[in-house]
Amino acid sequence: MEIAYYPGCTLHASSRLYDAQTKLVLGEMGITLNELEDWNCCGATSASKTNDFLAVAMPARNLGIVEDSGLSELVIPCSACYSRMLVAQHRLASNNTLKDEINAELSKKVKGDIRIMSILEVLVPKVESGELAEKAAKLLKGLKPACYYGCLQTRFPYNVPVPDDVENPQGMEIVLKALGAKPLDWSYKTDCCGASATVNDTDTALRLMSKIFEDAIARGANCFVTTCPMCQLNLDAYQKQMSQKYDIGRSMPVYFITELIGVAMGKSPEELQIDRHFADAIGLLKELELI
Amino acid sequence: MAGPVLEFKPEDTQAVVDEVMARSGQNITACYQCRRCAAGCPVGEETGYVTPDRLIRMILLGDREQALSNELVWKCVSCYTCGTRCPNEIQTAKITETLKYMSKEEHLDPLLPKVAAFHKSFCTAANHLGRLNEIEFMGLYEMKNTFRNLIRFKFKEIYNETMAQAKLGMMMTKKKRMHFGIEKVKHLSDLKRLLKKAKRSGPLTESDKSRST
Ligand code: SF4
Ligand code: SF4
């Protein structure tokens, strides 16, 4: 099975571990990821806040590249890139003038007929078909993750089809349960971590994160799991500062979903690059004898 | 929470309502002030009294000045909670975006200049090489902040800001989360042309009639 793959800037920079894990884990399940030739930045949230035309035009170039490659499915692990591409495709489909205006400048024109998938849309069917469990070398016993979706995995500014429950998504829970973990029910799974506010409005972001931590801890979680590199970096890199300010009193590893699948598959921490976390992520796995 | 009394300016009302509705694509006249949006807005506690319902009310009452510069416009984190829950499918994030464009066109000082500097720097850096270089982006962003603080003699802020970013940068380097290589799109010409078009057309008005939410 061959799928087009858009890593996006983050997976080629601060979240390279997510790129490596995605390739490793999906590869193990027989999925070949075909990285888009000469892809560009999707514009993230910043384009939409600066220039709305760019917010559609930047993703459009990438969509044209996928269509030109002949592949009909595209996976985007980063929630922000996923959201931006999905929204751009929707807006192109509903506005021919805009589409023509953008296509006039593109060497690879966009029609808008490929299927854009988040990483969960690739993983969940693999649970249902039993392929994921088949590849698991061990069960994630003792792991009680708070699955954190953040904003961009299920909420969109336009009417695009959402493949999961908007307020109480289950994709990550389905995957982790199949691997023997015990994901918890909790209230902040789709609350905002502050996104770029960690940098440009730090106090607001720290307050938002404190609520997420307080609820997860109160429910008895021993780690966070996420699909979004922005959420991962925020909850991880700003954790210490937030904990001190809000007196949280304990540290929590923040894993990518691919990281835990990799552990279940028996991959080594080195291959999965688990040492690249701010809050210790190795300790818990050792304590539970998972690595 | 009680906020200041909103003013009604009948002579200005239609113009501002029409402009915001056309540019954001949001039908704000459908708002019946149920405040479901306010209940879920994560920054609602930080914006004084301005929640999405209040922002919409300001616009409907024609209070252009307040609508253009209040904390929600700049603190909105585009989480889309309000729009997902609104029974009338009003996406306030599209309205705060629109109000940011409008305040920029009127050369108003952004209420949270760091937010404006952040998004501008991101777009400049992303379009320079076609892919975002995190170091270039943060460099641009801090240059903007430093310059703004310099001309206002806010030296302590420059120090705090620089220290915070340096600390983050060092931590990221230590955790192997910082990458110094340069990635670049090979065929930049498409992007350059699109960028030119974007600048010419200015911030896009929401001409597409696709239903938001
Ligand atoms: S939820 Fe919608 S209708 Fe209700 S107050 Fe907010 S914007 Fe108005
Ligand atoms: S999108 Fe903005 S206004 Fe709406 S709930 Fe989120 S932060 Fe509040």
Question: Rg of chain B from C-alpha positions?
Answer: 20 Å
**Roughly how many Å apart are the termini of chain B?**
27 Å
| Structure annotation, total helices of chain B | 11
The oligomerization state is heterodimer
Count of individual helical segments of chain A: 16
CATH class of the largest domain in chain A: Alpha Beta
Order of helices and strands of chain A: EHHEHHEHHEHHEHHHEHHEHHH
Order of helices and strands of chain B: HHHHHHHHHHH
Low-confidence stretches of chain A: none
Strand content of chain A: 5-15%
Overall pLDDT level of chain A? 94
In short:
Chain A contains 16 helices and seven strands. Chain A is of the alpha/beta class and 291 residues long. The relative contact order of chain A is 0.14.
Structure report:
The complex is a heterodimer of chains A (291) and B (213). Chain A has 291 residues and is of the alpha/beta class. Chain A has helices spanning 8-11, 16-28, 44-50, 52-69, 79-94, 96-103, 119-128, 131-135, 171-178, 197-200, 202-218, 229-237, 239-246, 257-264, 269-272, 282-287; strands spanning 2-5, 32-35, 73-75, 115-117, 145-148, 223-226, 254-256. The longest helix of chain A is centred in the N-terminal third of the chain and has 18 residues, at 52-69. The two termini of chain A are 30 Å apart. Chain B has 213 residues and is an all-alpha fold. In chain B, helix 1 crosses helix 7 and helix 9 runs antiparallel to helix 10. Chain B starts with 9 loop residues before the first helix and ends in a 12-residue tail after the last helix. Chains A and B meet through helix 3, helix 4, helix 5, helix 6 and helix 10 of A and helix 6, helix 7, helix 8, helix 10 and helix 11 of B. One iron/sulfur cluster (SF4) binds next to helix 6 and helix 7 of chain B. Residues 40-43, 52, 76-82, 92-93, 96 of chain B line the site of one iron/sulfur cluster (SF4).
